[in-house]
Design a protein that fits this description.
It is built from 21 helices and 17 strands. The chain has helices spanning 2-13, 72-75, 91-94, 110-122, 129-138, 143-149, 179-182, 210-221, 282-299, 340-355, 387-400, 424-432, 438-453, 460-470, 478-496, 509-528, 537-540, 542-547, 549-567, 572-583, 598-612; strands spanning 22-23, 29-30, 37-41, 44-49, 54-59, 65-69, 89-90, 191-197, 227-229, 236-240, 280-281, 301-303, 306-311, 363-371, 377-386, 403-409, 415-420. The two termini are 61 Å apart.
Length: 625
């Protein structure tokens, strides 16, 4: 229950954000829902005057997400069950003239249940004028009549509501009515939201009005049932067995807590009633679930419907282990600081800013959610850890799993060279390719998370897969290979602890072979010139070189001779560099034993150093090995 308690405390700590509308990067609005409220996608907006008369109606094509009051029954209604929302609802509930216009119902008319429930609210001590205005209008039972006159709904030749649009109605209407473009089913499934219009003053939208929220919350709290001990807070409060859905998005039907199976094996066999398993109060359930929805919209990461969420109860500004180190704006990503020691200082500076915000109870929550079926959502991973410990682990990850990367864009939307740690998602794409399915990516991201939080070793299969792909550049486009190479170097560097800066004193066999390959690549590339885009022989033979270095190197070196001749004296520096590096390899080590990942580090560092040199004659450069 600790994750529920922390979500509940998060809601309490951020209660000032209740009802405050925020927008995601894609423009979609979200808010921290008040208790006894949910969201629905509305299709029609009806404006009612303060006198309770119809004013106008429009079909909603944008900003359709609507915050509406709800009861326990309406929040979990399904099928033919009659359970009206208290205010905004589908046409079958809110239209008193639904049957008169050919609307089909089962045994009972939903409108009678709806209008009775609304009447009880507006006539209670918590009733509010806006709700009374809407009630007065709807009680006249002429909503469909007004919507037809406003050309929102459509009738057939017999004066009955058209179920679905058909070509046979083209004689009645010149163009296909707009309502059929926003409603998935027939007109009767349209969801209606109401607003109060005033010509003399600007009124808040009903679904954005805090006074409306407070009115219904206070009213509904008085209707809650028996009290029981809440297993989350330990207090005796009105309990509930019906918990929220729509956790990941508005169409999500999966629930985290459910006990509606009285004939299967959800709880039967151990308990006779579901509340004997665990009792959760209505208030805690509402606040915890609403906080979870809000956090997912605000800072959650979703891959193939799997939610990765990191948060603090009192502070939303928490670094996420699923981000790369470049995402921390306060971190300096200067390319000259490309040693682990130098970069570790930059990481420490950035994360110390978060440490300064430590409170007396400063813990970080890490939660992973996913569903195996459409109706059940499960907690795959949950940790509640000390914030200082958490930041120290992030600092170690960001300082050790590092390399230079060229796949990030700067503020000018240009690719820039930055030093840092890749994100788990980029690691997944490096290991399995850019076309890897979301199902594969989310599985790898989940496996990488303990490597960051618990400082575990990166699984060997991930490193091997990345290494094999980085050693086979001709199997992918150049940009993808460059990204795969730098991410793989970061993974190998995490194991070996190397620097990006070229280590001229390193006599490791694999590292030196990697340097040789880089020099051959640069020499041939200079001979080909910038206009020639084909791969060099070093790149073409890279996969074979990693498996049979001595044999493949002979082939590569033989292929270099025409390019050395073409460059003439300009090739002198690189040719001597090849001789110097090769001479460092022990005679017994110059064999066909497959290379380890260290050769990629030598390849990258040597190539990087050569590309960073100033543009001057190779023959005049000083050899420093």
């Amino acid at each position: 229950m600790s994750w529920l308690l922390n979500l509940y405390e998060t809601y309490e700590a951020n209660s000032d954000c209740v009802g405050e509308i925020k927008k995601k990067y894609n423009g979609q609005e979200y808010t921290l829902l008040p208790i006894s409220h949910t969201t629905q996608t509305a299709h029609i907006e009806v404006e009612i005057t303060e006198d309770g008369e119809f004013h106008s109606a429009t079909i909603i094509k944008g900003d359709a997400s609507t915050l509406i009051p709800c009861t326990e029954e309406s929040a979990s209604r399904a099928g033919t069950k009659i359970a009206p929302y208290p205010l905004h609802d589908k046409l079958i509930y809110v239209a008193g003239d639904f049957v008169a216009y050919g609307g089909k119902i089962n045994k009972e008319e939903p409108f009678s249940y709806y209008i009775k429930q609304l009447e009880e609210w507006v006539n209670s001590s918590y009733g509010i004028e806006k709700a009374k205005t809407i009630y007065n209008y709807l009680n006249k039972k002429q909503l469909i009549k007004d919507l037809v006159e406003a050309k929102i709904l459509c009738l057939d030749a017999n004066g009955q509501l058209i179920d679905k649009w058909d070509k046979k109605y083209e004689g009645l209407y010149e163009d296909k009515p707009s309502i059929f473009s926003v409603v998935a089913g027939d007109q009767t499934s349209a969801f209606i939201r109401f607003n109060v219009y005033s010509p003399n003053k600007i009124l808040k939208k009903v679904w954005k009005d805090p006074e409306m929220f407070e009115s219904f919350v206070n009213y509904y709290n008085g209707l809650l049932g028996d009290q029981d001990i809440c297993y989350v807070t330990g207090e005796k409060l009105p309990s509930t067995e019906k918990h929220a859905n729509k956790i990941r998005n508005a169409g999500d039907k999966a629930k985290l807590i459910s006990a509606n199976d009285t004939s299967g094996f959800t709880f039967r066999g151990r308990f006779s009633k579901s509340n004997e398993v665990a009792s959760i109060s209505y208030e805690v359930s509402q606040k915890a679930h609403n906080a979870l929805k809000w956090l997912i919209n605000h800072q959650g990461k979703i891959i193939d419907q799997r939610v990765f969420l990191v948060w603090e109860n009192n502070n939303l500004d928490t670094p996420n282990p699923l981000d790369d180190s470049f995402s921390m704006n306060s971190m300096s990503a200067k390319k000259e600081a490309f040693t682990n020691k130098e970069f570790a200082k930059e990481v420490a500076k950035a994360l110390d800013g978060y440490k300064n915000k430590l409170s007396l109870q400063s813990d970080v929550n890490i939660l992973i959610l996913d569903s195996a079926t459409t109706g059940r959502l499960s907690v795959l991973y949950y940790r509640n850890i000390n914030k200082e410990f958490y930041l120290d682990r992030l600092k170690k990850w960001y300082s050790t799993c590092v390399w230079i990367h060229r796949y990030h864009k700067d503020e000018n939307n240009q690719y820039s060279e930055v030093f840092g740690a890749p994100s788990p998602k980029d690691i997944a794409l490096a290991a399995y390719g850019s076309k890897a399915s979301d199902k594969i990516v989310k599985g790898l991201v989940e496996r990488i998370l303990p490597c960051i939080i618990d400082d575990r070793k990166i699984p060997l299969d991930i490193v091997k897969s990345s290494f094999q792909r980085a050693s086979n550049p001709i199997s992918m486009e150049k940009w993808e290979w460059e990204k795969t190479l730098s991410v793989t170097c970061a993974l190998i560097n995490k194991q070996e602890g190397y620097d990006v800066a070229l280590d001229r004193e390193n006599v490791n066999r694999d590292y030196l072979f990697g340097r040789l390959l880089a020099i051959a690549d640069v020499l041939e590339r200079r001979a080909l010139g910038s206009d020639e885009t084909r791969a060099t022989n070093a790149i073409r033979y890279m996969n074979s070189f990693s498996k049979h270095p001595a044999r493949t190197w002979k082939t590569i070196q033989d292929s270099l001779q025409p390019y050395q001749a073409r460059l003439g004296t300009k090739a002198l520096y690189l040719s001597k560099l090849i001789d110097e590096v090769a001479s460092k390899i022990n005679f017994n080590d110059f064999n066909n034993k497959p290379l380890s990942g260290k050769y990629l580090l030598g390849f990258y560092s040597q190539r990087y150093e050569l590309y960073q040199k100033k543009d001057k004659s190779d023959a005049q450069e000083e050899i420093t090995i």
